[in-house]
Fold each of these.
Amino acid sequence: MKSPIWHPFTQHATAPEPAWVDRAEGACLFTKDGRRIVDAIASWWVVTHGHCHPHIVAAIRAQAERLDQVIFAGHTHEPAERLAEKLVEMTGLDYVFFSDSGSTSVEVAIKMAFGYWHNRGEPRRHLLALEHGYHGDTIGAMSVGARGVFNEPYEPLLFEVGRIPFPEAGNEQKTLDLLEVQCRLQSPAAFIAEPLVLGAGGMLMYGADTLREMKRVCERHGVLFIADEVMTGWGRTGTVFACEQAGIVPDIGCYAKGLTGGSMPLAVTLCKAEIFDAHWSSDRRKTFFHSSSYTANPIACAAAVANLEIWDREPVLERIATIGAHHDRRLKDLADRRGFTHARRTGTIAAIDLDVPDSGYLSDAGPKLYAHFQERKVLLRPLGNTIYLMPPYCIAPADLDAVYEAIASAPDSLRR
Ligand code: PLP
């Protein structure tokens, strides 16, 4: 029988039948028809320590038997309190607001920034964002993200933001100068950026020095700096958070994906005390008016606490460094081959472009590459002609090699 399910980011007219996944373990998915597929993109960048990590599974089971869900207005619970305390310690930020996805964590960040200025009696009307950014698919998150094929039909719903050019290698000063000018002329409420790596925008990478300078420019002009660490957080760039590499603490930070190790949907937006304080008032109109039904769901929070315990107990950063070194060896080999260009890496994120005449998200190469990788039992989901890897940190070297072999054979397979 035909399934009634409408899948995300899927053109059903042309997409192959979805792989029916029965179970998952470590870095692998096991399908109903008996295939073992290496999950080289950590199931949309969420799985950090591996699928079904026993410590997280046990925490979920125990929490589900004790407290499954409770309204979070006027109530609190142990997993949320423990998680918030630890997040504050890790990020250097002061307050934690819970939500359920990366997109909602960005919506919350935007609202916090506008609420801050509004409640201070100095309302601001603009936002700045980095060109090629992707921040999610809700209206605010789409508005601050790059305009293009992802959001063209929804254009009338989106608000305008000032765009700061991506800091291309060698042209970083141009980015900083334009940020300076826009901060001075527009007095924006905030500037939002993905630190070090722009994910869905094409795995575009820039340096920690530029990130630090962008934060400094914002500071000089009293503009809030929002770091969207939804993808870069939880070790992806080589440190727990990308901002660490620049030695900066954002005014507002968005975290999701690997927050629960990839097991449950949960997100947080953390902010500095002054943003919370601007909402602290005997005037109830200054309340932060945001919620969703499952805010700080106890089972998801327990999964996140267990995730952080794994960070404390297991050599996660060493695993990340090992994957980075493996990427370097194999990327070098690919870069020497015909058909590839622009090899790059930050932490566990490796990317390379296939040299094609029609580059970009809608490149013809995209679906062909996807099919090629499926045939080789590898889950890679190229962004057009950009092939990238973002594996779970437990991936076995032999599996990572198999992924690289599949990539190496892609140009020939596409020519056939
Ligand atoms: N922000 C960034 C940087 C992302 O990469 C993503 C998703 O890929 C999001 C926000 C949206 O997260 P979600 O898909 O959980 O809504």
Note: The radius of gyration is 21 Å.
Amino acid sequence: MEVLLADEYGFCFGVERAVEMVEEAVAEGARPIRSLGPLIHNAQEMERLGEKGVSTIDSPGEADGDTIAVIRAHGVTPQVQRDLEQRAAQVIDATCPFVTRVQHLAERAAEQGRDVVVAGNPDHPEMIGVVGYAPNNTYVVRDASEVASLPTLRSPLVVSQTTIKLKTFLEVAEAVRQKADAKPQVVNTICSATRDRQDAARALAGEVDAFYVIGGRHSSNSVKLLAVCQEQCEKSFLIETPSEIDPGDLQGVGRVGVTAGASTPDWLIKQVVQRLNEIGAAHAQPVH
Ligand code: F3S
């Protein structure tokens, strides 16, 4: 049995960077390290980091004078950042640079007295952080239909949550055009990581007999990856750990594909590939 990895899989740039920043602090002996919200949406990686003394807090109020506080890749509002800086011994800002860009674009537009429309989910932590940079001027809309209820928009800036669909963003931008008092400035701030993983999985799914997506069952990008694989490969499975692989599913399978969501660490992917290779070798044994 041949095990094939998709061309793009696993940690996106921002998540990898955040984990590396925390690992560096751990290596320097910094303690206790507390991330505001889970650093990463992967239970196994959180457990691994937990063993190294990294824990999670739910609000800046939980940071004390000893705490090394971590701002995760989603970012936070300037107010939350200030709170952490006042309370904690040190703040590690692991906001993904692609998110920082959206925050700064919104802040600058607001300083110029312009409105900001962000296509995204208003309840998502990334969006809550962005709104904090331009609280009086920003509207977060889930789709174009929500633009209709907005007031006339002043020289608006249109940006997007980093993980939304391009189609939604373009539709929102068009709806804003019709609500604006001047031509809007449209800046596509969608990050390609999710899309790249889906495209790579799609390209491989047609060439394999079975497909394993490694990721959390509650991770939306992993669930979406599974749906992409299932379109072309009936035997597609979402697993969190190698122990979930059922060798029975691989009977008669010649080629098996593997991909992983943006929060799945490399060590877990390696374990799955190793397990698949073991099962493949066992299946290759001659039957007496
Ligand atoms: Fe950053 Fe894109 Fe990942 S915005 S956190 S690299 S999905």
Note: The first strand starts at residue 2 and ends at 5.
